[in-house]
């Protein structure tokens, strides 16, 4: 599946629009498979669909990087859905691009919470738990290089100076990457996040966001850490297809029991 996604994404040039039959002709893949993958890429925000065909969506990531991250999205998909089902909170999967978070996936479902994020969209990394958990994986000098200019202020609690950001990143490192934000990206929303190891020198992140205070979000920390551990484990497999299959395997009895306990509690009960 990953190889087919890469093959299809690579037939598009910036600004080019291709019909379904043209993509089939250029890739040599079955028409039904191409149609299904194009629909999935469109739903993920990686392709745009107009009356005259498909084209690359405006994205912060070049095509080559989008293809590289397609396996991460495939491996993480079931874990994201399960985490949302267990908590009722918005789940994000993202990567770090300079001083910004680029969102690879988002599961909002039944949460009813409106967040200022979208798949393939960007937000300032210093202003969210998701961004800070990834920044905390970088050496301090790399963080300095990323934020050579002033830090943008999105809310009254957004970190706006580099010294405070470094102090926050030190605290996150002491918690093994676990990060929080308290209405720093959007008023009324708080988040918890943890990093995902995706390769040599590369890191992604997963977050939960909701309209509840951080001291209640802290109760979800074991589930967040278990989720990123599961994704990292499957990404470590040598065979990409096996990694995706493994990530879709039934969860353990322990995971099931923990999920049942969490589902019996409303978010207001996480105190």
What does it look like?
By secondary structure, the protein is of the alpha+beta class. It has two domains: about 1-55, Winged helix-like DNA-binding domain superfamily/Winged helix DNA-binding domain (Arc Repressor Mutant, subunit A), CATH 1.10.10; about 65-240, Beta-Lactamase (2-Layer Sandwich). Helix content is about 45%, strand content about 20%. The protein has twelve helices and eight strands. A six-stranded antiparallel beta sheet has the order 5-4-3-8-7-6, sandwiched between helices. A hairpin with a 2-residue loop joins β7 (about 190-200) and β8 (about 200-210). α10 (about 220-235) runs antiparallel to α11 (about 240-245). Mean pLDDT is about 85; it is low at about 240-245 and about 255-270.
Summarize the entry for a quick read.
The protein is of the alpha+beta class and 271 residues long.
Distance from N terminus to C terminus (CA atoms, Å) equals 42 Å
Main sheet, how many strands, which sense, barrel? 6 strands, antiparallel
Q: Runs with pLDDT <50, length 5+?
A: 238-247, 257-271
Based on CA inertia axes, which overall geometry fits? globular
Biggest sheet strand order reads 5-4-3-8-7-6
Gyration radius, rounded: 19 Å
- Overall mean pLDDT stands at 83
Structural class by secondary-structure content: alpha+beta
Number of strands: 8
Count of helix runs: 12
The helix/strand order is HHHEEHHEEEHHHEEEHHHH
Q: Determine and state the CATH class of the largest domain.
A: Alpha Beta
Task: Say what oligomer this is.
Answer: single chain
Note the beta-strand portion.
Answer: 15-25%
- The helix content is 40-55%
Structurally, how many domains make up the residues?
Answer: 2
Q: Give the CATH topology of the largest domain.
A: Beta-Lactamase
Task: Provide the CATH superfamily of the largest domain.
Answer: GAF domain
